[in-house]
Write a structure and sequence with these properties.
Blueprint: H1 2-23, E1 28-32, E2 35-39, E3 53-58, E4 69-70, E5 82-90, H2 103-111, E6 115-119, E7 125-126, E8 129-131
Parallel strand pairs: 1-4, 3-5
Antiparallel strand pairs: 1-2, 2-8, 3-4, 5-6, 5-7
């Protein structure tokens, strides 16, 4: 009986050690198509310039709710979270407080000259996006 108890205890400890890194994942958030999605980093190597799904960070936003904006949410058009990184910078301090939650708005501001967008191939990375729940 004692051996069974020790075996069960050892199994529980090993299971806890294996599951702990999964449970300890740190989730981030981003906008896509006007909605908030959760993200988490993965250790996958992504060579510079090989990202396929555009993601935009905001260099000088003053809006505390501003998150990165992904071009695609999971589904049609998405390539699985292999991100091509772009940095968006407001060209006027008066616009820096605006909240952008979708690619269409971002593209419209860029077309108006209100956002400057620069590609950063060295920052490409992989991370999945999940429904915020």
């Amino acid at each position: 009986m004692r051996r069974v108890a020790i075996a069960v205890l050892a199994t529980l400890i090993i299971t806890g050690l294996v599951a702990a890194p999964v449970a300890a994942k740190s989730f981030g958030r981003l906008y896509a198509e006007g909605e908030i999605f959760r993200t988490f980093g993965t250790p996958a190597t992504v060579d510079p310039g090989t990202g396929t799904d555009p993601i935009y960070t905001f260099a000088n936003s003053t809006n505390p709710d501003q998150l990165s904006v992904a071009r695609y949410a999971p589904g049609p058009g998405s390539h699985g979270g292999r991100w091509a990184v772009y940095h968006a910078t407001w060209t006027s301090a008066a616009d820096a407080g605006l909240l952008v939650t979708d690619y269409e708005s971002l593209a419209a501001y860029a077309a108006q000259g209100r956002l400057s967008i620069v590609r950063d191939e060295a920052a490409d990375f992989r991370c999945p996006i999940l429904p915020n729940g």
